[in-house]
Design a protein that fits this description.
By secondary structure, this protein is of the alpha/beta class. The chain has eight helices and seven strands, in the order E-H-E-H-E-H-E-H-E-H-E-H-H-E-H. The protein has a single domain, classed as Spore Coat Polysaccharide Biosynthesis Protein SpsA, Chain A (Alpha-Beta Complex). The protein has a seven-stranded mixed β-sheet, with helices on both faces. It is globular.
Length: about 240
């Protein structure tokens, strides 16, 4: 039995070489779970880490009854880790946050409160604590993505999101597609998403996995992949069945 089915809300945390952040994550998430407005658990997805992250994750899951984990045999990338988290989640709702603690798990309540009839609610990083050059890269990438996808999303790079699990399972996720969650949600008939400002903090441990190449060139190329996919995405509604 998949234990996430015993909860209303699963927080997915992809991890790649974040050994210096695991214990801080444990402290913050363990403190948040009792305060979450949904009965919640944590699902770590170790993306083939080569440092001590995997052993730290096993350790914190062993001493926290609402923490679970899966681990990749080898590194597969953030989109793959997110897809695995979705595939292994059986709660009605799921959330996603990065392991760097630049967003606050407590803000999941803000997103859940605004979910309403939406399929997804995504955060908008207010008063970003990144460098000016990183903010410039994000503004450029977000502007180009909005022009190409017309998704209207202000900040798809914000790693704090909540989704209905049934909608998340229908997302066509490929490498790089984690940047396009609002646009991908809108491919589904009748789907919508909301946006809510959330807090943002400087990274205090570990190293960023993003740089100029994968901040700008990756999203640029993926926009064309999205436009190809949009024309071919399958929607259907079953009107009758005797199954």
């Amino acid at each position: 039995m998949n234990n996430t089915g015993n909860y209303e809300f699963t927080i997915i945390v992809p991890v790649f070489n974040e050994e210096d952040n695991i214990y801080a994550l444990e402290e913050r998430l363990a403190a948040f779970l009792p305060a979450c407005i949904k009965h919640a658990c944590v699902l770590f997805v170790d993306d083939g880490s080569t440092d001590g992250s995997a052993s730290h994750i096993r350790e914190v899951c062993a001493r926290n009854s609402d923490f679970y984990h899966i681990g990749f045999v080898r590194n597969a990338g953030l989109s793959a880790a997110l897809k695995a988290g979705i595939d292994f989640t059986e709660s009605e709702y799921l959330g996603y946050m990065d392991a760097d603690l630049q967003t606050a798990p407590e803000d999941f309540n803000l997103l859940l409160e605004n979910l309403g009839n939406h399929s997804m609610v995504t955060g908008i990083r207010a008063e970003r604590k990144d460098s000016g050059f990183k903010r410039f890269q994000s503004r450029f990438a977000n502007g180009f993505r909005r022009m190409m996808t017309h998704d209207g999303a202000a900040d798809t790079g914000c790693p704090l999101k909540v989704l209905r699990t049934d909608a998340a399972r229908r997302l066509p996720l490929f490498k790089g597609m984690h940047r396009f969650l609002p646009a991908l949600i809108l491919l589904q008939d009748g789907a919508s998403y909301g946006q809510v400002p959330v807090r943002h903090f400087p990274r205090t441990a570990g190293k960023s996995k993003f740089h100029l190449w994968n901040r700008l060139w990756g999203p640029f190329a993926d926009c064309f992949a999205y436009r190809w996919m949009k024309k071919r995405y399958i929607n259907y509604s079953v009107g009758e069945s005797d199954l």
